[in-house]
Amino acid sequence: MASKVEGRCDPRFEAVRQALEENLAERGEVGASVCLSVDGETLVDIWGGMANPETNDPWQEDTISIVFSCSKAATALCAHILIDRGELDPKALVADYWPEFARNGKEKTTVQMMLNHESALPTLRDPVKPGGFADWDYMVRRMADEEAFWEVGTRNGYHMINFGWTVGELVRRVSGKSLGTFFREEVAEKTGARFWLGLPETEDVHIAPIRQYVPKPDDEPTEFAIKLMTDPDSIQHKSFLNTGGWDFNDRKMQAAEIGGGGGLSNARGQVAMYTPLAINDGSLVSSDRLMNMTMVSTATQRDATLLIPTRFASGFMKSMDNRGRGLGPGTSAIMGERAFGHVGAGGSIGFADPECGMAFSYTMNQMGNGILLNDRGQSLIDAAYRSLGYRTNAPGAWVR
Question: Structural domains in the chain?
Answer without folding.
Answer: 1-400 (3.40.710.10)
